[in-house]
Specification:
Layout (H helix, E strand, L loop, with lengths): L28 E4 L2 E4 L4 E4 L2 E2 L4 H11 L5 E3 H8 L7 H15 L6 E4 L3 E4 L4 E3 L18 H9 L14 H21 L22 E3 L4 E2 H4 L4 H15 L3 H14 L5 H14 L4 H9 L7 H15 L5 H10 L4 H13 L3 H9 L8 H26 L7 H14 L3 H17 L3 H17 L5 H14 L7 H14 L3 H12 L5 H13 L15 H6 L3 H14 L3 H13 L8 H12 L16 H4 L16
Antiparallel strand pairs: 1-2, 1-8, 2-3, 3-4, 5-7, 6-7, 9-10
Helix pairs in contact: 1-3, 4-8, 5-12, 7-8, 8-9, 9-10, 9-11, 11-12, 12-13, 13-14, 14-15, 15-16, 16-17, 16-18, 17-18, 18-19, 19-20, 20-21, 22-24, 24-25, 24-26, 25-26
Length: about 625
């Protein structure tokens, strides 16, 4: 569906389009039937169970709750949910469907009038804040009452959106930042041989934890540069939420901090980064607001942070030079270290990836990130050092599931697939005992993916179990597209093309990053076009993809499409074009090698390890043209 410009979209209706007039004060929340929506806590309860809905779903529900029984026009929903943005009608339709799914047995209350708007057909009552509503920092610490700030962050009024222009000095700082990038990148490239860094990983831990307000980015009180103590408390709460996997709540808290403290650019810069990572649609005005807060006292590190979100969103390198410059200043920014490593892995640059991973400490940071860093190090050839870290006590203080999951990854890297699956199952069971939903999901997806690769009979039931767990915890839904896609291939293996089509269509209906859309487009083409060509690209035009450095991906998808049509000459030509555009430097290299093997009737090696960032690579390594055990000896 083509993109629609919100400013020119008009609607004609004989129904009063004006929602109920805004109240003088926002309520603590709303309730209807078995639904309890606590605005003040950013929490949605369905029959008393936390639904863990994402920010956009909560925003939509809040808009509807403010006008129960009244039709809210689609234009008003666009303005409330995506101010100053160009968003397709399809995006709103999918969001409405996600709200219905989140509400479960009460989803029928969300009534749509085709092409016109949405109505919440329920008796909604306002609920007051309980006396002990203290899950968020104290209101007394904030210049703006926290309750009002949370409500404002969760549901932004339709007429409260104003865009603030950036200061002219911003361009000067960009130029200065660019010079710093060059110097920092040169320093980073000097360590690209993958050898152990000369400094000990303890250097990455803050010398004064009390001065740190957002640990994963090594943000300090000096960076914050504010007289409002409540802002630091909010950032610590947000950091803790992110570290425990609740990114949606962390983003709400960052929005509260940004809106309640007009002096510091840090909360808004962090929020823009998470938005740019596609955890929710980007607010284009937020970056401009952050820019207006940069002043003479702003640290160089924060200036780079303010630039990072724009680089992640618009640069084909995912903002890696900016992150490299930042970790050169703050080696303790371990979340950026991990992101740099994963960006390098995605570009097949395993030496720099290993160097970045080795800088991440094996203690003093969240256990799941320790496990991820150590497992990825093992996959990149550092298994002996990882085993030594385990012997030294890495993850000893963490819940048992993390150590089990790491040993499962080590078994997979060593080619002991059955042992890897058994260890992941044990890790999932331990995570259930620990009430660690994120750890359980990670272990279950790993076990399911390994079973999928080995073509085990229980692979689909494992994937279905993972999908069910994700749907119960919508903050984890970023992993759902891959799970659905792998189930589609299993359905196709069984000759059930209709089920495969339904599963892939479900994946296409989710909010997807550009990378995932491209991966799924290639995946769909490789499976023989279960869905029409271009379904996952949607409104992404090829000129934009070229600018983002993604030409090789759609060229490869075209090559698979030609092969499916039986035009091997065109398939070879398009494959050559994809390789000229650099597809062999991405995690689609296996797809390119597999296509060449299919065209020529030969075999190729495949290495589905490490699995980051694209689990769909496992499906490439399953096709008959490639030996199923080739990854044990395959090259990088």
């Amino acid at each position: 569906m083509g993109r629609l410009t919100i400013a020119t979209r008009t609607f004609v209706s004989n129904v009063d389009p004006t929602p109920a007039a805004p109240r003088a004060a926002q309520p603590f929340g709303y309730a209807f039937d078995g639904v309890r929506f606590e605005l003040g806590r950013g929490r949605l309860l369905i029959d008393g169970v936390d639904a863990a809905a994402g920010p956009l779903v909560l925003n939509l529900l809040a808009v509807l709750c403010r006008s129960p029984g009244l039709l809210v026009l689609r234009q008003q929903l666009f303005d409330a949910l995506w101010p100053r943005q160009t968003v397709s009608d399809d995006a709103l339709t999918k969001l409405i469907g996600r709200l219905r799914e989140t509400l479960g047995p009460y989803g029928h209350a969300v009534v749509t009038l085709r092409g016109r708007g949405v109505r919440l057909d329920a008796s909604v009552v306002e609920i007051e804040a309980p006396v002990d509503a203290a899950s968020l920092p104290s209101q007394s610490r904030l210049a703006v009452p926290l309750q009002d700030a949370v409500n404002e962050a969760t549901v932004r009024p339709l007429d409260a959106q104003t865009e603030t222009p950036a200061r002219p000095a911003w361009r000067l700082w960009l130029a200065m930042g660019a010079l710093l990038f060059v110097v920092s990148l040169a320093l980073w490239m000097a360590s690209n041989d993958g050898s152990r860094s000369a400094f000990d990983s303890d250097m990455l831990l803050p010398s004064d934890p009390a001065a740190t307000v957002f640990s994963g980015f090594a943000i300090t009180m000096e960076d914050l540069d504010t007289a409002q103590p409540g802002t630091a408390d909010l950032l610590r709460e947000a950091s803790n939420a992110v570290d425990h996997g609740d990114v949606a709540r962390g983003m709400v808290l960052l929005r509260v901090a940004h809106d309640s403290d007009p002096t510091t650019p840090v909360p808004g810069a962090l929020l823009a980064y998470f938005q740019a990572r596609k955890l929710q649609p980007v607010d284009p005005g937020l970056q401009a607001e952050v820019a207006t807060r940069l002043g003479a006292a702003t640290t160089p590190y924060v200036r780079l942070l303010a630039q990072l979100s724009a680089d992640v969103e618009t640069r084909g390198d995912g903002g890696t030079p900016t992150m490299v410059a930042m970790v050169a200043m703050r080696p303790g920014a371990w979340r950026l270290q991990l992101r740099i490593a994963h960006q390098a892995m995605g570009l097949r640059r395993h030496g720099p990836a290993l160097a970045a991973l080795q800088r991440i400490p094996d203690h003093g940071i969240p256990a799941d990130l320790i496990m991820t860093a150590l497992a990825d190090r093992a996959a990149l050839g550092d298994a002996e050092a990882v085993a030594e870290a385990l012997d030294r006590g890495a993850l000893t203080a963490a819940p048992a599931e993390y150590g089990l999951a790491l040993r499962g990854r080590l078994a997979w890297t060593a080619g002991r697939v059955e042992a890897a699956i058994a260890l992941m199952d044990e890790a999932a069971a331990q995570a259930v005992l620990s009430n660690n939903v994120r750890g359980e999901l990670s272990a279950r997806i790993s076990a399911a993916t390994f079973a999928f690769y080995r073509r085990q009979m229980d692979a689909d039931s494992r994937l279905l179990q993972a999908a069910t767990l994700i749907r119960r915890n919508t903050t984890l839904e970023a992993q759902l597209p891959e799970v659905l896609a792998m189930r589609a291939q299993l359905a196709l293996d069984q000759g059930d093309r209709q089920a495969a089509e339904s599963l892939l269509e479900s994946a296409a209906s989710l909010y997807l990053s550009t990378d995932f859309r491209l991966w799924l487009e290639v995946y769909n083409a490789r499976l023989g076009l279960i869905l029409p060509a271009g379904r996952f690209l949607g409104d992404l035009d090829r000129r934009t993809l070229d600018q983002l450095g993604h030409a090789s991906a759609y060229q490869l998808a075209d090559a698979w499409t030609a092969q499916t049509a039986g035009d091997l000459t065109a398939a070879r030509t398009l494959l050559a074009a994809a390789r000229s555009s650099g597809v062999d430097d991405t995690y689609l290299r296996e797809d390119a090698a597999a296509l060449e093997a299919v065209i020529n009737g030969t075999h190729s090696t495949c290495r589905p390890d490490p699995p980051y960032p694209n689990l769909l690579r496992f499906s490439t390594c399953r096709i008959e043209a490639i030996p199923r055990d080739a990854w044990a000896t395959g090259s990088n």
